[in-house]
Design goal:
Layout: H1 2-25, H2 45-65, H3 72-84, H4 87-94, H5 101-107, H6 120-146
Helix pairs in contact: 1-2, 2-3
């Protein structure tokens, strides 16, 4: 699972960076908002891909070492991408330089790639399915790691 998550992160980051580079290479886009491709579903899909990569590395590392302290790296990287050098820093600057960025903020997820905010049904479906997958995978991991359910559920 960790390898799949990491490779998915690399693909997302690379694709998002490639799309942005192509968009910026056209001088007529200088003051426009990049809202095509992955950028239609996230304002910072490249950072999301980077974060996903680190979470995949955590899954791989934890699977080998069973040392929960390895979670510090993806938490730190995600925090830095969201609050220090990535999303928050760029957003504070871009909203004044790009036409339509305020509307883009209102309708597009800042980090996680997901349906537009004005597509409420598909967005709720996405969140509901992600929660189900998380619960299912957590229970599978817990059974594998600790040899049973213990007190986490009543099955």
């Amino acid at each position: 699972i960790g390898i799949i998550v990491s490779v998915t992160g690399i693909v997302i980051e690379s694709l998002a960076d490639s799309q942005l580079t192509k968009f910026k290479s056209d001088s007529s886009n200088a003051r426009k908002v990049m809202n095509k491709g992955l950028w239609n579903y996230s304002r910072h899909p490249n950072y999301f891909g980077d974060s996903l990569f680190w979470w995949g590395i955590f899954i791989i590392s934890y699977g080998v070492t069973f040392n929960f302290y390895v979670i510090i790296a993806p938490i730190a990287m995600t925090y830095f991408l969201l609050k220090v050098s990535g999303v928050s820093m760029l957003e504070s600057q871009i909203k004044y330089t790009k036409e339509g960025y305020e509307d883009y903020i209102k309708t597009t997820s800042s980090f996680i790639i997901m349906p537009k905010k004005n597509h409420k049904k598909s967005r709720l479906l996405f969140v509901r399915e992600a929660k189900k997958l998380y619960r299912k995978e957590f229970i599978r991991w817990y059974k594998f790691r600790f040899g049973g359910y213990g007190n986490i559920c009543n099955e």
